Amino acid sequence: MLIVGLGLTAALGFWSFHRESDQRRTVLEREAREVARALEDKVRGYLDTLPGLRVYGMLQQSPTDAEFLHYVQALSLQDRYPGLNLSFIAELVPEDGLAAFEARARADRSVLPQGHPEFRVHPPGPRSHYMVLRHLYPDDPPSFGYDLYDPGQRYRADVDRALATGRYVATGPLQLARDRNKPLDPALTSIVVRAALYRGGATPPTEAGRRANALGVVGVGFRVQPLVNAVLPPHLARLMRLRVVDEQALAGAVMGLLFDSAPDRQAQAAAPFWSGRITVADRQWTVTAHPHGGAWAGQESTGILVLFGAGLSLALAALTRTLAQANLKTQAQLGDAAQELMKERDQLQLSEARFRMLFEHSFDAVLRTRPDGRVLAANASACALFGADVQTLQSLPRERLVDGTDPRLATLLQERSRSGRVSGALRMRRVDGSLFEAEVSSNIYTDGDGQQATSMIIRDVTERQRLADRLQERQRLEAIGTLAGGVAHDFNNMLAAILGNVGLAQQDIPPDSPAQARLRLVRQAGNRARQLVRQILTFSRQAPREQAVQPLQPLVDEAMALMRSTLPPTVRLQVQPSPVPLWARVDGAQIQQLLMNLCTNAWQALPAETGEVRVALECCSLTAPDARLLGLAAGDHACLHVDDDGHGMDAVVRARIFEPFFTTKPPGRGTGLGLAVVHGVVTEHAGAIRVDSEPGRGTRISVFLPLASAPAAEAGDAQPPATAMPAAADPGGMTSQRCARILYVDDDEVVALTALALLQRAGHTVRVAASGEAALAALGATGGQVDVVVTDFNMPGLSGLGVAEAVRQASPGTRVILVSGLVTDDLRQRARQLGIPEVLPKEELLERLLHAVQQALATPADGRPPAPGG
Length: 870
Fold this sequence. Notes:
Elements: H1 2-47, H2 49-59, H3 65-75, H4 77-80, E1 84-94, H5 98-106, E2 129-137, H6 155-165, E3 169-170, E4 190-198, H7 207-212, E5 214-223, H8 224-229, H9 234-239, E6 240-246, H10 253-256, E7 257-260, E8 274-280, E9 283-291, H11 300-308, H12 312-361, E10 365-369, E11 375-378, H13 380-386, H14 390-394, H15 408-419, E12 421-429, E13 435-446, E14 452-460, H16 462-508, H17 514-539, E15 548-551, H18 552-566, E16 571-576, E17 583-586, H19 588-604, E18 611-622, H20 624-630, E19 635-644, H21 651-654, H22 674-684, E20 688-693, E21 699-706, E22 741-745, H23 749-761, E23 765-769, H24 772-781, E24 788-792, H25 800-810, E25 815-820, H26 825-833, E26 839-841, H27 845-858
Parallel strand pairs: 16-18, 22-23, 22-24, 24-25, 25-26
Antiparallel strand pairs: 1-2, 1-5, 3-4, 4-5, 6-7, 6-9, 8-9, 10-11, 10-14, 12-13, 13-14, 15-17, 18-19, 19-21, 20-21
Helix pairs in contact: 1-11, 1-12, 11-12, 16-17, 16-23, 17-22, 18-19, 19-22, 24-25
Keywords: ATP-binding, Kinase, Membrane, Nucleotide-binding, Phosphoprotein, Transferase, Transmembrane, Transmembrane helix, Two-component regulatory system
Enzyme class: transferase
Subcellular location: Membrane
């Protein structure tokens, strides 16, 4: 019996020992797996803050310090997520926009009264693009203004990968800039996750589209130690050693180590009893659990009793004791399991509370519904968006909240039924019946009661759509303006030949000839065409600018005085002056032309040209939303209003009124350039136009101009008087002046022959060259014996400026006159830098060429160009 008893006791003790060890291992593996899953969920919660940052960064391009600070503090990210110690927006800045970007950052005084006067993008150095950390919370001075495209670091590869893929991109373990001067400390090990920011908010489907629409990146940074400690229970830390390693980090286990619960132990830990992987953005973390602290310890008394049992009674007593202790341990395990269940219940309640907080405080409208559209719950944003309380929304069917006529509805419902989730655009309906365009995302899931439910996130994009439409309209008008400028350039070449030959023909024909009357008509038509071209150039914003700070009311008064003389007697003109002086930097002639065009358009829109036109000048204060729609800065602006009692316009006509040559007037009543010129003038003056009109209710056109401070009075402000145009019979009025040797350069044969005849008739010796290269060859053949070179600017090969520079070097005593079919401020500036004081418009060659030649001959030829701008 003793041998049998001892054998039975030994067998039972051995079995009990291994059973407890296996149970302990199973429990620890389960707890380690739960820790890893909780860690992955916690990281996912951190990354869930990135969509909000992306939406904010897209809607608030280049936000101010105060706007970004208010957004981050309103979300309380640092309070909700332990270890989260950085939220930032980095903007993509091209090299040619760097100066403006730095100036805008220095001038941002929304938080600091002095702004950021020392702001510089660092490290310095030329790059095609910069990815600048502009907004960070909390403050990180070493990173403020840092360029993530720094060639001395490896950040650019991660940022470019985020821009190219559209996915979240995480870094390996690192220390943030604020911690880099501190000693190495595992508590400072951090991870930064970046997400690309695209124009329009949505991620383009192709890499080329993603790179073309990239605006920058947003990101969050968090320390790993408080993150893991938040999910690692203290009792597990005593039983196991938890290590987290980023396998994709730099080579070497130490470089990839993110967390070690027992860093003071030997580096060679015991073999892990559990290992798993979790996903963090685009990286994989390996989590391993190693036993320590008696994790597998069984009951040593069982082995002692088996080895030193002295009899059957002792063996039976040991067996009884072992069974009793096993029972107590089982009860203890049941108690631990009950505590775990209670803890899981508490975690579930905490998770539900956090979900409720996100649900209630989300900026987006969130609905919880059944698949048939019946509303189960709605947050405050949804109630505000639809204009009803929760009870009202719960009582309404889908047809009262969604526009059933929208063809996109059926497609979205089918896609959600097929895949369980969907996102897209949809036209929604408020409770009052008004419609709005919305972005909708929805998914289907099984509720706690086992029934299917859906969640819907709705965002009103009406204002964004309006801004997109306005941008499209501006781009279309800019394209038309570019085309109009090119047409005007070519048209001026033809006008130069037409008007020049008409002038020569008038000199050849006797004054009493009947042909003189016809030639006068041709010249009159040519002059009208020349005015038309000038209006085209004004629309395309390629006409030279002569802006100065001046009061607006005198310009309005002068224009209205002229307008009264042209209005029919059946039209009343009412002018409301500004009660306070308003100053702006404007071209007075263009502003008066703008008013004349608007008033003419207004009285011609009156029924039977009978009614009233009202003109008012006032100071308007634009709110931020209104200013954003108009593309202006918020604040005070000078406002010119022109109202009429005419027929009004529908949406189709309003969308096209600024297009050149578009008109609703009958043939012969207009060219369609009036409002196109108005648009060009306003754009040239950095202003904006707003049109309010409905059929049958008249029209109001409002022009907004930036205000300027009134300058101190100066004696030399008066403009020089215009030079009178010479008579047609003596073009230029210079036939009695000094004759010269002239080289005329133009690739247009008709214009060149016209100028040749004009100059020869004035007694000059003229040679003609068809290109810049031919002109230089001709100048070399004469040994530099040329008094004046008249050259066209726009020629194939060597341009007119190239000819002028070559002439200055080869023959310093030769004067140069530049002509062009399109004279711009930039061309005049470049000509002055080469010592050419003036650029002649080609369409005015008849009136100004001979005079310009005589002025050039009277200029000292010392070979030194005057100072730029002189």
